[in-house]
Design goal:
Blueprint: H1 2-18, H2 22-33, H3 38-44, H4 54-90, H5 109-123, E1 127-128, E2 134-136, H6 137-140, E3 165-167, H7 172-180, E4 186-195, E5 207-217, H8 222-237, E6 243-250, E7 253-262, E8 279-288, H9 290-295, E9 304-311, H10 312-320, H11 333-336
Parallel strand pairs: 1-4
Antiparallel strand pairs: 2-3, 4-5, 5-9, 6-7, 7-8, 8-9
Helix pairs in contact: 1-4, 2-4, 5-10
Cofactor: Mg(2+)
GO cellular component, one term: cytoplasm
Subunit structure: Tetramer of two alpha and two beta subunits.
Length: about 350
């Protein structure tokens, strides 16, 4: 038994010293120390040894195992160190090379103006509400007092998915959805993306953004509308800004108007930007049509309200004196980082 153990130890040492990689070293460990290894086989044969010799043989077996394990571990560490050294030689990093700079993003001018407008109306007690961009025809047109034969429903202007579903052409449907809840009074702002079948040019895009507002309460008059929008214009364009309302027609408001503000480039004296008029058209507005209130379940005898809507891109172009709407969507960081 002693001779057999000595032979196993010598054989293990030779194979360990001759091993070339970690996989071969692991195979050697399994061959000698595994469940079916040579040393394990010897241990299974201990039952055949006399009780007097068993302790002595047991000590020799343990010492043989320790010798093999120590040599295996020492060889493994040496191989790993050699591999690490070789890998470091092959993966040298040239610290003199210039580092790659991380380019930080920049808030889009549309986002800046959107947040500014929302902040102004939130300060007046308005709630910002969002709604679906894929909308029912009822909410986009019919509930806004726009009958089936109205030109705005022509497929030339609106993206229809089917007869009853379309891509919203305004954010007014959000107002209808809020009115239907019947939770009065209402002071809300509805910003969001809208879609119309327009050709792409310096002032048009098939996808753009609108910001619409709605107030419903008792005893709301056109004076409330004028005062609210005049204050909004002053906060957005400057305290010297004046407003002018011109009669207009919108199907969902009566009376209706378009609002101009004094040109913020020339102060109203007339320039190329305002085409010499001193005024710039900024939004449409009016008193909510009684039919719109009735279709949403609101008593038009007790409640009245006003609504307004503006194009976000239009405000952005005016505020930053940009002359081409397409610049907002080209994602050129040289342009966006100016704002």
């Amino acid at each position: 038994m002693k001779e057999r153990l000595n032979r196993i130890q010598e054989e293990a040492i030779k194979k360990i010293q001759a091993s070339k990689d970690l996989n071969e070293l692991n195979d050697i460990r399994i061959h000698f120390l595994g469940k079916k290894g040579e040393l394990t086989t010897v241990l299974k044969g201990m039952k055949d040894i006399s009780p007097e010799e068993r302790p002595v043989v047991g000590q020799i077996v343990n010492k043989t195992r320790e010798t093999i394990e120590e040599l295996l571990e020492e060889t493994r560490l040496q191989m790993e160190a050699a591999q690490r050294e070789e890998r470091m030689k092959n993966e040298v990093i040239d610290v003199t090379l210039p580092a790659k700079k991380n380019k930080l993003g920049h808030r889009h001018p549309n986002t800046i103006v959107m947040e500014e407008v929302e902040g102004i109306f939130i300060g007046m007690g308005y709630e910002v509400v969002e709604g679906p961009e894929v909308e029912y025809d009822y909410y986009n047109f019919e509930a806004l007092n726009i009958p089936a034969d109205h030109p705005a429903k022509d497929e030339q202007d609106t993206f229809y998915i089917n007869k009853n579903i379309l891509l919203r052409s305004q954010t007014s449907p959000v107002q209808v959805r809020v009115m239907e809840k019947g939770e009065l009074p209402i002071r809300m702002l509805a910003p969001g993306r809208v879609f119309r079948s327009d050709e792409v040019d310096a002032t048009h895009s098939p996808s753009f953004h609108q910001i619409e507002g709605l107030v419903i309460d008792k005893n709301i008059t056109f004076a409330d509308l004028k005062g609210t929008l005049a204050e909004f214009a002053k906060q957005l364009f400057g305290p010297e800004t004046k407003v002018k309302f011109r009669p207009h027609h919108f199907q969902f408001t009566e009376p209706s108007a378009e609002m101009d503000v004094t040109c913020f480039k020339c102060g109203g004296s007339g320039c190329r930007f305002c085409k010499g008029s001193g005024w710039v058209e900024i939004l449409g507005c009016g008193m909510v049509h009684p039919n719109v209130l009735k279709m949403s379940g609101i008593d038009s005898e007790k409640y009245s309200g006003f609504a307004f809507g503006m194009g976000l891109e239009r405000i952005t172009l005016f505020k930053y004196e940009i002359d081409d709407m397409r610049l907002l969507y080209e994602n050129d960081n040289r342009f966006l980082s100016q704002f």
